[in-house]
Structures are given as C-alpha cells and as structure tokens.
Specification:
Elongation Factor Tu (Ef-tu), domain 3; Rossmann fold; single chain; 2 domains
Length: 349
C-alpha cells in the first residue's frame, strides 16, 4: 500500500512525513486507499454522483476519463451557491462504480476551474484488474452513475502557485502535478490578462506532443520566449514560472502531453517540460522524443532549480511517482539545499 507525503524532510537515508501534511495513500492513476481528507472537499464536505462523459487513451496503459458531476455548473443542474463537492488541484477522488464495486482512489488531472465552468473533472486511469478501474475503462455515457468523494493529495498554496515551481513526475504520477501546473498557469493568465485555457478536448487520435512556446504568441508585454521546449535559462524572471521534469520508461508512456503543450504555449516561456526516458533500448535515440535519456538525476534537478531561482525567489518542488523515484528525488532536492517545507511529496505503487 502506498503512503503519500505532502512534505518531506531528510531523515538519515530516507524521508519522514511532516505533521499536518495533506498526505494521501494510493496510486496516482491506480487503486489505493485514502489518506487524510484535504480541504476543501474532505470527508466532511460531502460527495457527488458522476457519469462518464468521454475518454481517450493517453498511453497504451493509461486512459484519461472525463466525469460529468451532477449538480455542478454545466453538470446537469443549476450550481449551488456553495457546492458541496469541490477539490484543490492535486487532490484525489474516491470513485465508487455502480453496483457496489470496491472503490478506487485516483488523482484528478484537471483543475477546479474546469469543474466550476463545465461541471466535469478528469482522472488518469492506469489499466489494472481492479473492478472499479475495469468499469471506468469500459464505461460510456449510458453506463450509470458513480459516486465520488474527495480525499487528500499534494496541492500548492496560493503563494506557492504565484512563484517558481519545480515538478518532478514519474509515469502516471504526472496526473496530480499536471493539475497543479495547469491551475497555477490559469491563475497567472487571469492576473496578467493573457486569456484563458480551455478544457482539453477528447478528440480521436494520439495525444499531441508538447509544443515549443516559440510558436505561440506571448501575452501582451511579456518578453519573447526562448527556443526549445519552453523556458530554460532565458525564461522570464519573477512571479509564476515552472519546470516539469517528466520521466517514463518509454516515450509512448508520457501521458497528458496535449494539455501540457497548451500550458507551455499559453504562458510565453514561463513553463517548460523536459521529458526523460529510462529504458535502456532508447539510449542514444534522444532525438526521437526531444528529451533526455536516463532518470531525473541530481544534475537535472540542480539545473532546473538554478534556472527557477535565478531571480532570488525560492522555488517549491512537487514530486509524485513510484516510491524509489519519489524518495530519491526528494532526497536529492534536500541535498541541493531546498528547505523541507518546500518539498511536497506523493508516492504511489
């Protein structure tokens, strides 16, 4: 069983959970058990019923499933003034499928804005033999309603989302980090008058690659973005900016690239995505996916932190992935001098 840690600190060779963290147990995109409730939408905040509104395969083993929540804006009824069902970007939901199947905990990969505006939320579901997962992967609009309950998970405070953010994802651990990144970008776009991000479409075909921001028009008054996959040493300094270091075994196992590419393009060089592939068969073939071969190491973390903190503003790191990967990244970040309260950690298996 997985143990989610909202904040990590070095403790000998490992990490210990800090008291008061919004920890959760479970797998980002797979079955698990709940941890402590997170506000809003914890155990006392009520649940909701939802139907599958659409889905698409992001990788050969992971599917994005969109749920339409009853009673939410655009979700089959007039929204309540203070809706009982709400979540923070990065939190998880318990999904109980029709028929009393054993529930599954999944990380939400969409933002609260999508729920408020369209009455939907997205979860990234990794294929498994869990009965609720099998229902989600095979369900359609006429498959009945599931019951939802919001649990814990990592999330960014308002202050953290306004500053530099380093996100480190392994496999389907990208789900909550994608939500955190998109939510922070939406807030920045709202403050800067740079427009709004739409809800990622569920059209047919493989997900889009991460687009280079050089092809996008930056918001008025923003400096021209540098070449490459977004940001880097030439990215705008000050305020919100983010780097996602995203590792997977195979290039085709990088999920949510279409939505990530939209964020990169819309933020004018403030967001970058660096893809890592770890399988030995891909060594020397980096041009295939435009990233780096090998796991995210100390040098990658150090370079990203240096870029993000070049203006003197401290960064906050968010890490989610398999235990060995997540713990290793958190220990390296601590070794690079990042304070414990700025390392937000979630583990899954």
């Amino acid at each position: 069983m997985a143990a989610g840690l909202a904040a990590g600190r070095a403790a000998g060779a490992g990490l210990a959970a800090r008291a008061g963290g919004a920890a959760r147990a479970g797998r980002a995109g797979g079955p698990g058990a709940p941890g402590g409730p997170g506000a809003p939408g914890g155990a006392g905040a009520g649940g909701a019923r939802a139907e599958v509104a659409g889905a698409r395969w992001e990788t050969p083993v992971a599917r994005l499933v969109r749920l339409r929540v009853a009673g939410a804006a655009g979700g089959g009824g007039a929204p309540a003034p203070a809706p009982a069902f709400a979540f923070r970007a990065g939190q998880s939901v318990e999904v109980r499928a029709p028929g009393g199947l054993r529930p599954v905990w999944l990380s939400v990969c969409s933002t609260p804005r999508q729920l408020r505006g369209e009455g939907t939320l997205d979860v990234l579901v990794r294929r498994s033999a869990h009965p609720a997962v099998e229902w989600l992967l095979g369900a359609g609009p006429a498959s009945g309603a599931a019951e939802l309950r919001v649990g814990g998970g990592v999330h960014a405070t308002a202050a953290q989302a306004r500053g530099p953010m380093l996100l480190v994802a392994g496999g389907v651990g990208v789900a909550p980090l994608s939500a955190i990144l998109r939510d922070a970008a939406e807030r920045w776009l709202e403050r800067s008058g740079g427009g709004a991000l739409g809800t990622p479409p569920l059209g047919p075909g493989p997900p889009a690659e991460v687009a280079a921001p050089a092809a996008a028009a930056p918001p008025p008054g923003a400096p021209a973005p540098p070449r490459g996959a977004g940001g880097g040493a030439g990215a705008p300094a000050g305020g919100f900016r983010a780097t996602l270091l995203y590792a997977a075994e195979e290039p085709g196992e990088h999920a949510l690239l279409g939505g990530l590419g939209e964020v990169v393009a819309a933020t004018g060089g403030r967001v970058q995505v660096r893809r890592h592939v770890t399988a030995a068969a891909w060594e020397g073939r980096e041009g295939t996916w435009g990233g780096e071969w090998g796991p995210v190491g100390r040098e990658h973390l150090g370079r990203a932190l240096g870029e993000l903190q070049a203006g003197g503003e401290p960064a906050t790191a968010f890490v989610c992935g398999p235990p060995a990967m997540a713990d290793g990244a958190a220990e390296k970040l601590a070794g690079l001098g990042l304070p414990p309260e700025r390392i937000r950690l979630e583990r899954w298996w």
